[in-house]
Every structure is written in C-alpha cells, then in structure tokens.
Design brief:
The protein has 613 residues and is an alpha/beta fold. It folds into three domains: 2-131, Jelly Rolls (Sandwich), CATH 2.60.120; 134-411, TIM Barrel (Alpha-Beta Barrel), CATH 3.20.20; 441-610, Jelly Rolls (Sandwich). 22% of the residues lie in helices and 32% in strands. Helix 5 links the parallel strand 13 and strand 14. The longest helix is centred in the middle third of the chain and has 23 residues, at 239-261.
C-alpha cells in the first residue's frame, strides 16, 4: 500500500512538472507506437489559460502532426519552442468545430510545445503524433484524361492537402507567391521533379545541372530525380558490370556530396527514384557505394513499387510477400536504409498507363492492402515516407483516395483496413470477355454482327501497364473483347444484370472501346479524324451522376508505333437496389444510327466498383 501511494505521488509530481501547471494535465507523454508509421508523443486534456508548456521528444528527425480540439469563445495558439505568439503553428479562433491541425518537421531531440488560451477558450484534447513524410505527386500533374479536370490547389484542398507534408511539382511550374508562402507557412515542402542530364559526364556537370534547376526555382525545398536503376537482371551479377556501374555512378556521388556541403543548398533535399523488380537487391546498375552515399548525405531514396493487380487471392498474397521480402533485403544490404526511404507506390490507375489492369479487382482495396502491410508488418517499421506516383495517370477519385489512406494509416495510426469491400469484385461477370460471351445477353441486328474476338497485346495497347520494354502479360489480360459490327437493320446490343449492389451507395463504371479497323489497319490520325463512339451505354435501375460521367478519347501508348484512339467510358451512379442492368448499343438511344454501316467496334474492361465520394 505504501509503495503504491509513493508511486502515485511521484507520478502526480511528474505530470504537473511536465504540464507546466494544474490547468494542463498530461494524459500521456513519451512515445507510444500506434502502428509502423505513427507514434503518439503527447496527449493532454483540459488545457485553459496561458503559459502551458509540454515537452515532446522525437527519436529521430522527422515530421509531427498536431491536433487540438478547442471550445469556448476566444483564441487558442499553439507554439513550438520559444517562437513569438505571431509564429503560432496552430491558431484557432472561436469554439467548437473541427480540430485545429498542423504539421511540422523537427530535428531529433526534445522540443517544447506551448499552449496559449485567450478569454474563455480552452483545449479539450491536444494530441501530437510522430508521422512519416507524406508526399503527393503532385501539384501541376493534371490527369491525362482531361475530363477529370485540374488537380490544382482548390481540388486538393479537402482530401489531400491536410494529409500531406510534401508536394511534388514540375521543375518549371509557376506558382503565385501567395500559394508558395501559404504552403511554407504551414511548414510544408515543395519538391521539384527533375531528370538525369544525359549529356553530363562529370561531377561538375551534374552538380551544375541540378543546382541550376534549384536556382531557377528558389522556392522549392528539394529535387526528386527520375530515375536510377536497382534491378535484378541476372542470378549471378557480373563483377565487371558492377565495377562499370560503380565508376559511372561515382560522378553522381561526388555531385551529391558537393550539394550537401554547399551552403547555398545545404537545406535542400535530394530524393532519388529507384526502379526495380521488387526482389533481391544487387548493385549491377549502381555499384555498391551509391545508395550509401545518399544515406550519408541524409538524402532520400524514393523506391518505386508499382504493384499491379493479379488475378487470384493466392497470387495477390504472393505479390505482396515479394514486396515485403524486397524491403527486408534492402535493410540487410544497407542497414538503416528504411529511415531514408519513401516507398513510391503506383497511383496510376487509368490509361494511357495504368496498373489497374483487371476489371474484377477493386483497385482501391488493392491500394488499401499495400498500405495496411506498411502500417503493420514488422519488416516495414521505421520507413521514412510514402508517395503514390502519379496523379498524371490517375482519376480524380483515386487521387483523393490517397489522402484518405494517409489520414487513416499515417496520421491517425490505425491498423485495420480503411475499406470494407472484398478485393475481387462480383458486380459484373466475364468483364473482359476472356470467357467469350459467357454471362452476357446478346441481341445482334443480324447473324454474325456480334462476336467475341482477341488481338495480340491489345490490353497493353489500351494502356494496362506491365512495364515499359517488358513482354506482353503472360495471362494476355485485356487481349480479349466483344466486337459489334454496325448494321443497317438495327442496333446490336449486349447486356448483363449488375449484381451485389448496396442500395444508396455510389459506384463507378469504366469501359474501353475502339474502332477494330484501327487495330488491324493502323494509320496515323489526329483525334478529330478518329472514329468516335456513336452508340449508347445505358444503366437501368440506378441514378446516374451526369456531372461526373463522360466519354473521352485518348491515344494508346507506349505501343503500337502508330497510336490507336481508345474511347474511355466513365459513369458514376448511385444504386437504387441490389441489382441493376448495363446495356451497350452501337446505335444512339432512340435515334437514327450514327456512323457508317459495317464499322466494327471493340468493347472490354467493364469494371464496376464502389466510388469513394
């Protein structure tokens, strides 16, 4: 009993000393790990009046997230260290409403947090979390599908900007001074995407090239270089090739050391994109000292892990395990590397280059599974940051969804999945016509005007990314489709009942179509000369959101040499019941036929998945 009483008294003394007074009792201070990405450093409650001071400790340099729930009339200011009240990191005026939030980058060690409450204002709860660098790629990288609109600051304001620390921008972007100052006022960073100068041969030339870009955009806080290799091309790396790679990269290493030592660029950070297979690390492409030089300079490794969808539960688990094993091998080869590493996942969810390549897989659940591993698997502890590359090739929903994932895992520190849906979709069967016409109801205008066909590498032509320079997908995903040849006798249609919908919930439908003649007889065409979709896509039993729905043509890439113009169909709808119906016709609805008779059109990738509003 005596021991318990003494311990209780000591704890009370420590809490009061830590909090700076009886008005600010500290509920918790220290480092409480919530998941691999987030550690809670402080939780305090019932803070009122002024001169409340708390000590937090960052075990390494990095980011913190501050959240304060306030009430009462008057102002609340939260300050770091001995900053004057005009430099508050959080200012909250008026009671209630959403929590006041801020992010800041701190050096390793102890830091003071002061809370000033004016009038009747008080802080119900103050929470400070250690969080990783959260990178958005990016501002100025607008969607290749123009109908999604601009991904500008207004678009990013709600779901993305509050949940990131760093914005990747084009190196030649022009931003207003107000935007620059406001972002920096929040303690956040701009990083410019740049390349490797192929003409540069010496360390001086590389140094001058990269620092010249920094000089032209003095507001940026660093550069991210696209890209360096880290592949696994052979089971037995050649010592000679490795030696040549090391010699080739020594000029980069010298340029980086000079940049870090130069007073003008000492506060700028270099991020180096690394491509690769995701398997075992070897140094055939870089030599053995390149990565260590980046670590020694306290620069960042942006490790590309573009994990595309696969067609079974087992293959999905095996793919994620390969990702885990690859990160483990990095840490074995370069101890401590994870603290300097930002995983760059694949955001590119749409053509002309997307890894959302299977219409029966929910891409957002797949993204969620990758983030869940990072948040929970022991191999993924101590990662320095996260990125999803790139909004240039992502639909607006997926761009916004990254902000939700960051909030869930990397700010709040949750461990459970964000999504509640299965990985494999069941709304449409045989969505790629890989099983011929199975599951579909056909109404041909005459015999032979609707057929299931295939074309070699068509999925790759559509833009289902498998990696530049790689052979066609071994499963030939996307090479099959339904073909309809327009008839003067009437419209051709194909249809299917959409299953397993949740009434009242939003969904998206995606589909690709093109002129079959463009595949077999390719000719250079401008978009105005290409064959436009002249039919109709009808969804029965749902409420279609016309403002968010559209069709748009895009040129195929990276192959064939002569681009094929593909039509991208995007429909957002709200389910009324558990089922609905999709009907596709090659005639406009309730109109005369449009387009020449005999024209043949392909259809595939009918993907229906939940839409995150």
């Amino acid at each position: 009993m005596r021991v318990t009483l003494i311990a209780s008294i000591l704890l009370s003394i420590l809490v009061c000393e830590f909090a700076g007074g009886p008005n600010a009792p500290a509920v918790f201070a220290g480092e409480k790990r919530r998941n691999n990405l987030v550690a809670e450093l402080l939780e305090a409650s019932s803070i009122s009046k002024s001169n409340n001071s708390f000590t937090i400790t960052r075990s390494s340099a990095g980011w913190i997230f501050i959240s304060a729930t306030c009430k009462g009339k008057g102002a609340v200011k939260i300050l770091l260290g001995n900053a004057p009240t005009g430099d508050a990191v959080v200012v909250h005026d008026g009671g209630g409403g959403k929590p006041a939030e801020a992010m800041r980058y701190l050096a390793k060690g102890e830091h003071q947090i002061r809370v000033e409450c004016d009038g009747e204002a008080s802080v119900d709860t103050l929470v400070v979390n250690a969080v990783p660098e959260l990178i958005h790629c990016g501002l100025g990288f607008n969607s290749a599908i123009k109908s999604y609109g601009l991904y500008d600051m207004d678009f990013l304001e709600k779901d993305v900007l509050p949940n990131v620390t760093t914005l990747i921008v084009p190196h030649n972007i022009e931003l207003s001074q107000a935007v620059i100052e406001d972002w920096h006022r929040q303690g956040k960073k701009f990083v410019a995407e740049v390349g490797i100068n192929a003409q540069a041969k010496t360390a001086d030339e590389h140094f001058n090239y990269w620092t010249g870009l920094l000089d032209k955009a003095p507001f940026v806080d660093g550069i991210i270089i696209n890209e360096f290799g880290m592949n696994n091309p052979s089971p037995r790396p050649s010592p000679e090739r490795q030696k040549r790679a090391q010699q080739r990269h020594q000029v980069y290493e010298e340029a980086f050391r000079r940049m870090r030592a130069d007073e003008r660029y000492r506060n700028k950070t270099v991020y180096a994109y690394f491509g690769g297979s995701g398997k075992k690390v070897n140094y055939e492409d870089t030599g053995t000292t390149f990565v260590r030089t980046l670590i020694d300079c306290d620069y960042r490794i942006a490790l590309e892990r573009y994990i595309f969808e696969v067609s079974s539960e087992k293959a999905s688990k095996d793919t994620l395990q390969t990702f885990i094993d690859g990160i483990a091998d990095w840490e074995v080869k370069e101890p401590g590397v994870k603290k300097h590493m930002a995983i760059a996942f694949g955001l590119f969810s749409m053509p002309p280059g997307g890894i959302n390549k299977l219409p029966n897989v929910d891409y957002h659940v797949w993204m969620d599974q990758q983030m869940n591993i990072v948040a929970n698997h022991p191999v993924m502890s101590e990662l320095g940051g996260l990125e999803w590359w790139t909004s240039l090739l992502a639909d607006e929903e997926t761009v916004r969804f990254v902000g939700k994932l960051y909030r869930h895992y990397a700010i709040e520190g949750n461990t459970e999945m964000l999504t509640r849906d299965p990985l494999f979709l069941t709304h449409i069967q045989n969505a790629d016509f890989e099983k011929g016409i199975e599951g579909w109801t056909l109404q041909p205008a005459e015999e032979g005007t609707i057929q299931a066909k295939s074309f070699p590498r068509y999925g790759r032509i559509e833009g289902r990314y498998m990696g530049l320079g790689r052979p066609a997908d071994p499963e030939h995903i996307g090479d099959t489709f339904l073909s309809m040849k327009r008839s003067e006798k009437g419209p051709n249609t194909f249809s299917q009942t959409i299953q397993n919908l949740e009434p009242g919930r939003l969904y998206s439908m995606k589909m690709f179509s093109c002129d079959y003649d463009d595949l077999i007889n390719p000719k250079p065409k401008k978009m105005e000369e290409a064959s436009k979709f002249a039919g109709n896509v009808d969804l029965e039993g749902v409420d279609v959101d016309a403002k968010r729905s559209f069709t748009e043509m895009y040129p195929s890439g990276p192959e064939p040499p002569i681009p094929v113009w593909i039509t991208y169909h995007w429909i957002v709808f709200r389910a009324k019941g558990t089922t609905a119906k999709v009907i596709v016709s090659d005639w406009p609805k309730d109109k005369e036929p449009a387009g020449p008779f005999g024209q043949e059109r392909t259809f595939n990738f009918l993907e229906i998945q939940p839409y995150h509003e």
